[in-house]
């Protein structure tokens, strides 16, 4: 039986990934690479849909790749590469854009949210066509499974529509992928505003746990996390969002359920609970931080690993793109 293929990626939009990226994505990817032929990309082409500093983008791209590896994404098991190192991503995106309806692209909720945030004058065509590039990312590798959060599921649905549309017009060129919300994945919320998702683009970093933060900073943020006046460690997302968020984080890094956490801290206050969360998160993050910084100390070796993996990705992507070019009738260069 042929191993199914998986694709996913994250933008290099900050110097460090945060707890939501680690718990909601990297921990799941680490497990899924054992089961799938996995392709993981640092999607730097997506990152330039908003203004960026060139030198900072290069540095953030390396830092993101280093954190993938440090978190357990093994380049010997998975194909881990930088999106812009494989030119077929941009080329297929153009082909797919010609079969994407203007209204169809305009209905994407992330574009609506970001365009409202930045304003019309600062909103690029690239941001508008972002989901089409994401479709190209996925379809290039004949992907069967795309692990996503709720906020990206709409983009995978567009990818499926484009794959089916292309296949109907030009013949079976693409596998139609399935979105999968990985079992055990969890949405992590801001420690100071636990009704908002933890995000690299948060207005304040006080409630964001960064993977590359010094352990003392991480510990302090957890101890200062918002809770409530109830004093009981009990999971209730609506009534006790701060406590529920800390329980989710603790459960993810200790592999325990909410019921088990409630039993463990029955009759104990938030002080004991926060200390346990602090210790568990520090124990989980510190080896990742240490390994990532080691990798970043040797950028030439990191670049070499990424280049080897980009060549592997190129081979698969170029085969798909060549077939697509033939099917749409583009003349081969003599």
What is the structure about, briefly put?
Helices cover about 55% and strands about 5% of the residues. The chain has 14 helices and five strands. It folds into two domains: about 5-180 and about 300-330, Rossmann fold (3-Layer(aba) Sandwich); about 215-295, Tyrosyl-Transfer RNA Synthetase.
How would you characterize this protein structure?
The protein has 334 residues and is mostly helical. The chain has two domains: 5-181 and 299-328, HUPs (Rossmann fold), CATH 3.40.50.620; 215-293, Tyrosyl-Transfer RNA Synthetase (Orthogonal Bundle). 54% of the residues lie in helices and 7% in strands. It has 14 helices and five strands. A three-stranded parallel β-sheet has the order 1-2-3. α3 crosses α13 (270-296), α8 packs across α9 and α10 (215-223) runs antiparallel to α13 (270-296). The two termini are 39 Å apart.
Topology summary:
Elements: E1 5-10, H1 19-32, E2 37-42, H2 44-47, H3 54-70, E3 79-82, H4 88-97, H5 102-106, H6 109-118, H7 125-128, H8 130-139, E4 145-147, H9 153-170, E5 178-180, H10 215-223, H11 241-254, H12 258-264, H13 270-296, H14 299-328
Parallel strand pairs: 1-2, 2-3, 4-5
